[in-house]
Amino acid sequence: MTKKEIAADHPTWCPGCGDFSVLALYFKLIEKRKMWHEKITTVAGIGCSSRFPYFVQAHGAHYIHGRALPFASGISLSRPDLHVFVFGGDGDAFSIGGNHFNHTARKNIKLTYCVMDNWVYGLTKKQTSPTSPLGFKSKTDQWGAVDYPINPMKQAISAGATFVARTTHTNPNHVLQMMEAAMDHDGFSFIECLSECVEFYEGAFDASNPRKGGVFNEVPKTHDVTDELAAYKLAGEPFPGSFGIFYKVNKPTKNAKEAEINKSFQSKVTGLKDWQILQKNFDRMK
Ligand SMILES: Cc1ncc(C[n+]2csc(CCOP(=O)(O)OP(=O)(O)O)c2C)c(N)n1
Ligand code: SF4
Ligand SMILES: [Mg+2]
User: Fold this and answer.
1) d(Cα 101, Cα 113) in Å, to the nearest integer?
2) Ligand 1 pocket: which residues have CB below 6 Å?
3) Strand pairing partners for 193?
4) 116 closest CA partner among 11, 187, 223
5) Distance between Cα 126 and ligand 2 center (Å)
6) Most buried pick, 63, 112, 223, 249, via CB within 10 A?
7) pLDDT tens, position by position, 194-224
8) pLDDT at 174 (0 to 100)
9) pLDDT number for residue 4
10) To 5 degrees, how large is the angle CA 131–CA 188–CA 153?
11) Is the dihedral of CA 226, 241, 158, 160 positive or negative?
12) What distances in angstroms separate CA 107 from CA 6, 67, 87, 254, one per listed residue?
């Protein structure tokens, strides 16, 4: 597929929004990997960033706020031939969807979750999000945020995600690199992508952008991506921290485990029609 074939509606984001960059690189990924239309699944919750599936001409769903991951898990478990991509914001992922984030990570469901973190609720016009830094003035914290922000990288690692990476929309090559590596990972792959909200949090990530006088440091080459403690330490660096793959390990996925159960069960029901198998299950539950 080419970008021309895969682009749908014109994105409704504000001019200059970081989310444009993530979408452009998703198109690039699809082009580069020569993915077929019917093999692309793009799922999102609610938020500016979650409007993502509208702009992709392929299968996808703009689902309920914070519930993109359970919906995407169902697709991933029932359609092993698809790669499932989930896009969303920091509010969608870590506020209302915080519990699903932890559980999808620990279950190691094969999908790629890219959180476009802008440190604010953009769609609803500037409320404090779980990643807003202390002191951030918003409509919900007019004197400045008092709650300690969460650290998405630490949270992903401790929840059991098997691929954890960090990137920023101002470095397109790096975003693409992270998306490719995430897609190739057999398990739950999580990317925190800093994506500036130019409307409600302008300049939030300048310190990570060399064009704005900041620094973009890649994860040191000596870093062992299988070392959980080292990954956790990287995640604890003060902003702007490091960018790249913090953690990556191979563990059996829920997909593989369920496929195994299905295979062994199928031998017990050979010759039966689907509805008879279902009936058997209902009878068992009586
Ligand atoms: C159940 C429910 N609660 C609240 C809302 C209102 N709401 C819509 S988007 C959003 C937060 C969006 O923030 P984020 O996920 O960070 O996305 P962004 O717009 O910043 O990309 C909220 C609170 C909703 N749509 N549904
Ligand atoms: S409000 Fe912010 S996050 Fe939403 S489209 Fe505009 S710049 Fe992007
Ligand atoms: Mg946000």
Assistant:
1) 9
2) 46-49, 65, 88-92, 96, 118, 120-124, 129
3) 116, 167
4) 11
5) 10
6) 112
7) 999 999 999 999 999 999 999 999 999 999 9
8) 98
9) 83
10) 25
11) negative
12) 31, 16, 19, 6
Q: What is the pLDDT of residue 190?
A: 98
Distance CA 140, CA 164 (A): 30
Mean pLDDT score of the chain: 96
pLDDT tens digit string along 63-88?
Answer: 999 999 999 999 999 999 999 999 99
- The bound ligand whose nearest atom lies closest to the alpha carbon of 92 is 1
Q: How far apart are CA 113 and CA 45, in angstroms?
A: 12
> Residue 268 has what pLDDT?
83
Ligand 2: lining residues by beta carbon, under 6 Å: 13-14, 17, 19, 48, 118, 122-123, 197-200
Beta carbons of 83 and 115 less than 8 angstroms apart: no
- pLDDT surpasses 90 at 266: no
Burial bucket for residue 53 (CB in 10 Å: 0-12, 13-18, 19+): buried
